[in-house]
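Inverse folding, one chain.
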């Protein structure tokens, strides 16, 4: 038991977390699927009928007893119908609720000045309603008030009857509804728009033989100007230009940050190798500068032979080597090398090289060994972080696939339950 516990403790923590998350998601989706599907459609040898208005339902059940194996049987169950006493109460309640919505934006049915709201279906009851107007030229079968006929009315209005036929699959009830339509009350703005439309219609009628229709230049003493409803799309081009410039700037900034992050990561990965090679060459009797130039020479040779890609650390070392060859002081060249790399380990490394020039190579190897141990440890940590990031990136497609599988399992269950 203790050995097993020790083996489990040695496993990566992220591995445990991913497993637990996956298992937990599996149980959550399982519980949701069970809750959605319930106990099935058959309960104690009975099947619940669809409610009135929902239509017939088709089921496929596996029957035991017809043969040695389970036999699939397909059959249809009709929707439930209202019985006599229940139907009367349901129809009356549905009609009372319908009366509340019929006026629409009007204050009441005794003062109708705008369109009525005539529902064609009552979802809560499974009932259909068909409407018939006594005067379709004033109010049609859909509740729309005809403005031309409405304008001819006096303020007393005109009362007409609407007939509503409410029906289920087997039963039907008929209701009569009186409606008093009165003239529409126009606001000043609506009146002007109506009168101007009529004036333009009159001008159109009188200018039928002309190629161009001349619009009224003034109306009720006010000068008029006209323009198309469609807007000129060119006004959006400058806005789009600024938006694209902003997006492009953000894209460049993100790419620069991404490139810097990649560069810093590569610098850290190469740091321990550079320290190791410096120690090997100086331990063999070479000077620091000689070791530096040897490393640069090997790197450039590998690049020429295409055995190595571009490495930022070695490129900076090559630049430092060229500076020293051009006459720059060795200490200044190392110092600039650390600043260009921009990372604390390289700045410390440059400081060690500058200190070595002042104090000699007496303690350089010992200090470099300590620094190399630290560099190798940092490289291990960096590799571990990269592995964790890769594992995190894999979680998204993993959960996507898990979601697809769960949907494939749950949707048939919920459809069967419905």
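Residues assigned per position:
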């Amino acid at each position: 038991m203790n050995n097993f516990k020790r083996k489990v403790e040695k496993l990566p923590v992220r591995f445990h977390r991913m497993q637990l998350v996956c298992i937990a998601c599996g149980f959550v989706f399982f519980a949701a699927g069970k809750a959605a599907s319930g106990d099935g459609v058959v309960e104690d040898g009975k099947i619940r009928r669809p409610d009135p208005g929902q239509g017939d339902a088709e089921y496929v059940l596996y029957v035991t007893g017809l043969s040695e194996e389970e036999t699939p049987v397909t059959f249809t169950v009709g929707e439930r119908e209202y019985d006599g006493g229940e139907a009367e109460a349901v129809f009356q309640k549905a009609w009372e609720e319908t009366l509340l919505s019929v006026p629409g934006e009007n204050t009441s049915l005794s003062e109708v000045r705008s369109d009525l709201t005539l529902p064609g279906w009552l979802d809560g009851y499974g009932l259909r309603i068909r409407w018939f107007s006594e005067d379709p030229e004033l109010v049609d079968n859909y509740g729309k008030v005809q403005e031309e006929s409405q304008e001819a009315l006096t303020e007393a209005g005109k009362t007409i009857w609407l007939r509503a036929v409410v029906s289920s699959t087997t039963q039907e009830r008929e209701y009569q509804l009186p409606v008093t339509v009165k003239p529409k009350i126009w606001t000043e703005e609506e009146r002007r728009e109506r009168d101007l439309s009529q004036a333009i219609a009159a001008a159109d009628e009188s200018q039928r033989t002309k190629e161009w229709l001349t619009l009224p230049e003034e109306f009720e003493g006010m000068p008029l100007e006209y323009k198309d409803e469609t807007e000129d799309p060119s006004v959006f081009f400058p806005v789009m230009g600024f938006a694209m410039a902003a997006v492009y700037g953000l894209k460049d900034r993100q790419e620069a940050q991404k490139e810097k992050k990649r560069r810093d990561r590569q610098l850290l990965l190469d740091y321990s190798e550079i320290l190791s090679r410096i120690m090997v060459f100086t331990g063999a009797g070479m000077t620091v500068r000689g070791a530096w130039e040897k490393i640069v020479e090997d790197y450039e040779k590998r690049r020429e032979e295409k055995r190595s890609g571009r490495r930022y650390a070695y490129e900076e070392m090559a630049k430092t080597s060229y500076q020293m060859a051009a006459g720059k002081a060795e200490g200044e060249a190392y110092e600039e090398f650390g600043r260009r790399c921009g990372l604390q380990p390289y700045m410390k490394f440059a400081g060690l090289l500058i200190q070595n020039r002042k104090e000699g190579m007496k303690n350089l190897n010992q200090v470099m060994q300590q620094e190399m141990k630290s560099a190798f440890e940092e490289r291990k940590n960096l590799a571990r972080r990269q592995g964790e990031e890769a594992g995190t990136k894999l979680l998204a497609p993993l959960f996507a696939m898990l979601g697809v599988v769960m949907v494939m399992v749950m949707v048939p269950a919920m459809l069967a339950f419905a």
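Residues 88 and 176 are 17 Å apart (CA to CA). The beta strands are 42-43, 46-47, 57-63, 71-77, 121-122, 127-133, 158-167, 172-181, 218-219, 222-223.
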